[in-house]
Amino acid sequence: MMLKDRKALFERDMDLEFMKEVHGIPGGDAIKRCIQCGTCSGTCPVSWAMDKSPRQIIAMVRAGMRDKVLTSNTIWTCASCYSCTVRCPQEIKITDVMYILKRLAMRAGQKKAKAAQVFSKTFTDLVRRYGRNQEAQLMTRYMLKTNPLGAIGFAGVGLNLFRTGRMPLGAKPIKDVQGLRRIIDRAQQLGGEG
Ligand code: SF4
Ligand code: SF4
């Protein structure tokens, strides 16, 4: 294959808009400096559960591989621990890149993004109501909204946790829950999702 044909093929697969969106976030342009050293992947405590390592995600973003990046489970597995960001020798804000990729996946209506959105919204609703998480309600609501049949399989586990006192069903709101609600409401007005 001629060199110019290879170039044309490569450019056809590149999503330039996607690259512009990522480069446009504060610090996003820094991914151009990535030297593919793999420190981020070696540092990441959850890379074992990712289908693409953080290093691969950065390389794929640079190559404009929008669909492959946005359908990867990596962006949803990221625990936002910032270890990669702290250790990257090129000072690339990898965690922030993961956040923007989550947003882009949500806007694109990706299936994994929808489940994550339901989880995030349910979690935020519970924190708004009680001032803290309520695990039994979180899991029940999440399963019913995303996988009602799967919820039946988890019923036995839930019951055992409840019997042994490890997952209480009730919850009392914290002392100044109104103050926390004002903070969450304000964050949502400012464009916070979830
Ligand atoms: S640590 Fe930084 S420079 Fe190294 S591969 Fe990851 S993003 Fe690239
Ligand atoms: S911020 Fe995400 S990608 Fe980076 S090390 Fe932590 S879990 Fe891994």
- What Rg do the Cα atoms give? 20 Å
N/C terminus separation:
48 Å
Total individual domains: 2
Low-pLDDT windows of residues: none
Bound molecules: iron/sulfur cluster
Strand content: under 5%
Number of strands: 0
How would you describe the overall organization of this protein?
The structure is a single chain. The protein has helices at 3-13, 16-23, 39-43, 54-62, 66-70, 74-77, 83-87, 94-107, 111-130, 135-146, 148-163, 177-189. It is built from twelve helices and no strands. The protein is globular. It has 194 residues and is mainly α. The longest helix has 20 residues, at 111-130. The chain has two domains: 10-107, Orthogonal Bundle (Fumarate Reductase Iron-sulfur Protein, Chain B, domain 2), CATH 1.10.1060; 112-189, no CATH class. It is 63% helix and 0% strand. The mean pLDDT is 85. It binds iron/sulfur cluster (2 copies).
Secondary structure layout:
Blueprint: H1 3-13, H2 16-23, H3 39-43, H4 54-62, H5 66-70, H6 74-77, H7 83-87, H8 94-107, H9 111-130, H10 135-146, H11 148-163, H12 177-189
Helix pairs in contact: 9-10, 9-12, 10-11
One iron/sulfur cluster (SF4) is lined by residues 43-44, 46, 54, 78-84, 94-95, 98.
Brief overview:
The protein is mainly alpha-helical and about 190 residues long. The chain is built from 12 helices and no strands. About 65% of the residues lie in helices and about 0% in strands.
